[in-house]
Amino acid sequence: MGTIGTWERCSSRLRFTIDVPSSTEFHLQLARKGYRSLIYSGDHDLIIPYVGTLEWIQSLNFRIVDEWRPWLLKNQVAGYTRTYSDPRYFNLMTFATVKGGGHTAPEYKPPECFAMFQRWITGKQL
């Protein structure tokens, strides 16, 4: 298989052989196995706006267990978050926006994204 070499953003040299029209079934399979998930979007992402991600999450029919609220870094709003659960499998899905983040949010907001991931991976509330 091999590697590409030097990373290039959105390289036209990459030739994909498989197109996945929807990731919904993959997420539902992982939920059935009890895996938690963190879904995040930069709120300045013009390629995949966060409202589209919210619509996709609604299609999963998970229930809201923690309503919209800001999440903070250094006493400043770093974004907003909501938590979902599938009552059949009790997994939790955390959705978060990253304030000022673009399509590749960690590129635009590294400290915020690191804090978000660190809190999520250790089971702490954003």
Descriptors for this entry?
Rossmann fold, 126 residues, alpha+beta, globular
How would you summarize this macromolecular structure in one to three sentences?
This protein is an alpha+beta fold and 126 residues long.
Descriptive overview:
By secondary structure, this protein is α+β, with helices and mostly antiparallel strands. The chain has helices at 24-32, 50-59, 105-108, 110-121; strands at 37-42, 63-73, 76-86, 91-98. The chain has a single domain (25-121), classed as Rossmann fold, CATH 3.40.50. It contains 4 helices and 4 strands. A 4-stranded mixed sheet has the order 1-4-3-2. A hairpin with a 2-residue loop joins strand 2 (63-73) and strand 3 (76-86). One of its GO terms (biological process) is proteolysis. Belongs to the peptidase S10 family. InterPro entries: AB_hydrolase_fold (IPR029058), Peptidase_S10 (IPR001563).
